[in-house]
Amino acid sequence: MHMNFIGVIKMKVNELFDLWKAKATEDKDLLNELNSIENDKDGIYDRFYRSLEFGTAGLRGVLGAGTNRMNIYTVRHATQGLANYLNKKYKKSAVAITHDSRIKGELFAKEAARVLAGNGIKVYLTAELEPTPVLSFLVRELKCQSGIMVTASHNPAKYNGYKCYGDDGCQMTDDGANAVYSEIQKTDCFDDVKLADFDDAVKSGSIEYVNDSVYEIYLDRVQEQQIHKDICADLKVVYTPLNGAGNKPVRAILDRIGVKDVVIVKEQEMPDGNFTTCPYPNPEIKEALQLGLDLCESEKPDLLLATDPDSDRVGIAAKDGDSYRLITGNETGIMLTDYILSQRKALGTLPEKPIIVKTIVTSIMINKLCEKYGAELRNVLTGFKYIGDQILGLERKGEENRYVFGFEESYGYLAGTYVRDKDAVVASMLICEMAAYYKKQGKTLSQVIDEMYEEYGYYLNTTLNFGFEGAEGMKKMQEIMTSLRENTPGEIGGFKVLSVDDYLESVSTDISTGEKSEITLPKSNVIAFFLDGENAVIVRPSGTEPKIKLYVTAVGSSAENARELTEGLAKSGEALMGVC
After folding, report:
1. Is position 558 annotated as part of the catalytic site?
2. CB 525 within 8 A of CB 534
């Protein structure tokens, strides 16, 4: 049976390869690639053994030919599914579309626009690259029923992606994504796609370029999130957009709030989807920030800012004596939470029942801050759409002003309710304001976070990534998660396992009693092991990349002790997954 099944797959793969050679003729790059792999069985298999999955994160994959690649045909196919979904759900609909600096980003945005226009759907298209939060803003501001952001976020240059948004400005929900995926499955990627001529659609108004005035409105909404005004004049910043979409809006908002001394990392200033100076344009990784750190050595700024290619996430390095210290996503979120709650409370602008939202893999140190300031803490699944959904729920009750701040450990932050996704533009503004506020007190952000550790405890959060490429990699990831569910460990890193939360089964199990309780969050392929001493290990396959993430929380008596505990927990976690 196994051999027969493999044989059927290979037959299907070869048939698809022949079909694409015959019909994928519009993009010469794809034809050249198909011709080059004619005798490469593994190369053909990897491109056609599956179709890119369309989920709540949309599409994401390596650029190239085939059903398992990002190209004009997979983009058109997904967009036709979206068009069918919208035309069934609404009598009349509109979609906002933009892209970041990724290779073929502008092409994919225009191809998506052609499909929507061909299906009688109005398109608002940006004239140039824009950040992901701007797309979220445009959906709401232009009263669209959906939005498309062409981006692969912080993935390497060989990737691109396609994120879909609902009419609320959040990334599409599970129900919406499933409905679109159902429509995609009913259509042929070549024969069933309706395409308008781009120039004709622009002339007729079916495709309309977004007026520049909207971006000023967006920046106005960002600026409204300021807490202390006119305190940033003495701040010096080194900034790198990592060759992405943050260059214009981040510099514009910093100029608005008075940060005039901004030095740009020239090699990473202009849009470039090849990311030649940082092969992995991720502000979580030191290598991506290295040119900025080098520039800090000569410029001596107070702060280094780095936004990722679609400018929804921001990483920082703070002055630390004569050098610069990389601040983690959790640490930045902890400091921003404390700064916003404390300063708004001092100014009397904090709502009566303030709400802070974080993801389940984000630092539990936030619990203590919420207790201190009387804020309600809400935990949600990984993915900023779940934070956006909390805002939507408050808005429906007329209580959106209760939302104060939301963040996730992977460097995504949002203050305000003007968008429903993480926003590196507002985060950059607030980070600079916070740095300027503490500078006036003679403190750097490095000193601020250390003082917080002294006050609340040394909560050290570390994320480890394990890559699994190709078909075998996907199989291995599934095997690891199945094994973890079937073989619950008694201890990890020398700490007793107290309870296990399985978010796919929606069950929390108390290990000592065996008692089970329901997890009310949506289902997700995540397993969390909670240990003695507030320590924890969480395992989660990425929803957008072929890798498993291991999140380690270590709570120590000192910074050194927390690091030692982290090493032990990490090694034990790796052994548990069978990847060491």
Report:
1. no
2. no
Binning pLDDT at 50, 70 and 90, where does residue 1 land? very low
336 has pLDDT over 50:
yes
Which helix (H) or strand (E) element contains residue 216?
helix 213-223
Give the contacts of 139 (CB within 8 A, at least 6 positions apart).
96, 146, 147, 165, 166, 167, 168, 169
Structure tokens at 68: 């398992």
Residue spans of alpha helices (H) in 119-171? 132-141
pLDDT at 275: 97
Give the HSE-up count for residue 85: Cα atoms under 13 Å, Cβ half-sphere.
24
Strand partners, 96: 124, 147
pLDDT in tens, 188-234: 999 999 999 999 999 999 999 999 999 999 999 999 999 999 999 99
**Facing residues of 318 across strands?**
303, 325
What percent of the chain clears pLDDT 90, i.e. is strictly above it? 88
Strand-pair partners of 465: 549
Find the angle CA(319)-CA(322)-CA(324) to the nearest 5 degrees.
35
- As a dihedral over the C-alpha atoms of residue 250, residue 256, residue 262, residue 265, rounded to 10 degrees, the angle is 20
Does the pLDDT at position 256 exceed 50? yes
Encoded tokens for 502: 């399985």
Q: What letter does residue 163 receive in the DSSP assignment?
A: E
407: DSSP letter: E
536/79 Cα distance (integer angstroms): 41
Rounded-to-integer distance, Cα 368 and Cα 324, Å? 28
Q: In whole angstroms, what is the distance from residue 1 CA to residue 146 CA?
A: 44
Task: Map tokens 């949506």 to a residue.
Answer: 522
Catalytic residue among 51, 101, 146, 153: 153
Average pLDDT over residues 102-110: 98
* pLDDT surpassing 70 at residue 170: yes
Q: In which region does residue 125 sit, left (phi positive, over 0), alpha (psi from -120 to 50) or beta (all else)?
A: beta
